[in-house]
Specification:
By secondary structure, this protein is α/β, with parallel strands linked by helices. It contains 15 helices and 13 strands. α5 (about 130-135) links the parallel β3 (about 120-125) and β4 (about 140-145). The model has no long low-confidence stretch (mean pLDDT about 95).
Length: about 400
């Protein structure tokens, strides 16, 4: 049996990590991996999380299983964070998952269990794991126009034209904030127009929200998700705590399903529970427990929000500094989009050949589509990157 298996292609980002580690140059810069790094190149544990871990170590009395859906306290704390009061609680169903990726997988499993065969619409471009998971699960998918490689902004008119082809029952996957890989986001007016169009088409929004608090703020970053939740009879959300709580390895994610009424939500919940049982039975609890403690303890929450705000504004400063350095070097504002983007990423518009030249000649590592991790920059590396970008002719 096993000798019939075929070698699978290596994940591009993981392969890039391997290349970076093997590079002996002291000047190398890693802008590929999507994790937050501080000025020293470390991914620190947030102070509120560390305090919660100490408290949990002292107070935890058991390591027994949680429920199939995970802990209800986590569900409701995250509901408040992501949705606020946008939708009635009795219409909601939840399951905890191993990270946001696990949440995406379980959403697709739920859709398949419904017996329908919708087309899933993905932004062009989108996070590489979106089409990968859909292909693996045999789900039909296509793309809608999103990013303009010339202006490095959302090409909204083309996006709306693309979505005219959506059919009733199709799912449209939208990034809740901090679009990955481009950093280009919808504004509030555009969220309204997208919602109106999808309502008219009878489509189902599927929101992937992985960076809440990294863009314009916790409340601001939830705006689009909350607006759609207040309008649609059905909606699916995959939320991740990896980035905004800095607990990448704890794999804390959540599915939130919005049903048309409480009776349907009860049935949806039973199906979500069933899916967890078939995939991994009980979800991991340590990371979700920490998130719950931070969100529900006023002192820990204030600490966390303050540190998250420092992370957010720090990335904005790095964006502005890079845009300024490029402006000084080229004498134009053609890289001004970097300061306008939000979140960890920007796609800078380099060709694959230019990306390779940045790696080979300048020891600067980024994903092949020229996505850079802004959080991977420091004050010392910003001028180095700016000079290299101009040297390779971007």
């Amino acid at each position: 049996m096993l000798n019939a298996l075929k070698q699978q292609p290596e994940d591009k980002i993981l392969a890039l990590m391997g290349q970076f580690r093997a590079d002996p140059r002291d000047t190398k810069i890693d802008l590929g991996v999507g994790v937050y790094k501080d000025a020293n190149g470390n991914t620190p544990i947030m102070d509120a999380v560390k305090q919660a871990e100490k408290q949990l170590w002292n107070d935890e009395k058991t390591k027994s299983y949680t429920g199939l859906a995970g802990d209800a306290g986590f569900h409701h704390a995250m509901k408040d964070l992501v949705l606020g009061d946008a939708v009635e609680t009795e219409r909601l169903s939840f399951i905890a998952t191993p990270g946001g990726t696990g949440a995406i997988r379980q959403v697709i499993e739920l859709v398949k269990m419904s017996g329908g065969s919708p087309t899933v619409w993905l932004s062009d471009p989108t996070w590489g794991n979106h089409p990968s998971i859909l292909n693996h699960m045999g789900m039909k998918h296509t793309t809608y126009a999103y990013f303009d490689p010339e202006t490095r902004a959302v090409k909204f008119d083309a996006m709306m034209d693309s979505l005219q082809a959506v059919k009733a029952g199709d799912m449209v996957l939208l990034h809740g904030c901090c679009h990955n890989p481009t950093g280009a986001n919808l504004n509030q007016e555009q969220w309204h127009l997208v919602a109106d169009l999808l309502l008219e088409k009878g489509a189902i929004p599927f929101i992937d929200i992985a960076y809440q608090g990294f863009g314009d703020g916790l409340e601001e970053d939830a705006y689009g998700t909350r607006h759609l939740a207040s309008k649609f009879p059905e909606m699916l959300i995959a939320a991740s705590c990896s980035k905004n709580f800095g607990i990448y390895r704890e794999r804390a994610g959540l599915v939130i399903a919005i049903s048309k009424d409480a009776a349907t939500a009860t049935i949806t919940q039973s199906n979500l529970n069933y899916l967890n049982r078939q995939n991994y039975s009980f979800p991991p609890d340590h990371g979700t427990r920490l998130v719950t403690m931070v969100l529900t303890d006023p002192k820990l929450r204030a600490n966390w929000e303050a540190e998250l705000e420092m992370v957010r504004t720090g990335m904005l400063k790095q964006r502005q500094a890079l845009a300024d350095a490029l402006r000084a070097g080229c004498g134009s504002d053609r890289f001004g989009f970097i300061a306008e983007h939000r979140g960890m990423f920007s796609r800078i518009g380099a060709t694959p050949e230019q990306v390779a030249k940045l790696r080979d000649d300048h020891a600067i590592y980024m994903v092949g589509d020229s996505r850079i991790n802004i959080a991977g920059l420091t004050d010392a590396t910003i001028p180095v990157l700016a000079k290299a970008i101009l040297d390779v002719g971007i």
